[in-house]
Amino acid sequence: MRILMAVVALLVVIAGLVLAVLNAGPVAIDLYLVTWNAPLALVLVVVFALGVVVGLLAALPGRWRVRRELARERRRAALHEREVRNLRALPIKEEG
Fold first, then answer.
1. What phi, psi does 38 have (nearest 5°)?
2. Helices (H), the chain
3. Using CA atoms, how far apart are residues 93 and 96, in angstroms rounded to an integer?
4. 39-69 pLDDT tens trace
5. Residue 30 three-state SS
């Protein structure tokens, strides 16, 4: 699996380099008060990075909720395991 991830990462880097070479022309970014001239490849990388950051921030609350639920379920499982151990330790009463 690690080899597959390394190959995918390498392909993404190569695609990024090709994109940077083919889109080296400058573009003007107008931010209302400021105009910024930069190569198109740099603008694409910055926008992609901002998208990754926003996506990770958007995913955090759900991840925190799942971690809380997992901790709660682990506590419940430990409680049930203790209860089963205690029940197994009880002597069996025979009726008759």
1. -150, 160
2. 2-22, 40-89
3. 10
4. 888 888 888 899 999 999 999 999 999 999 9
5. strand
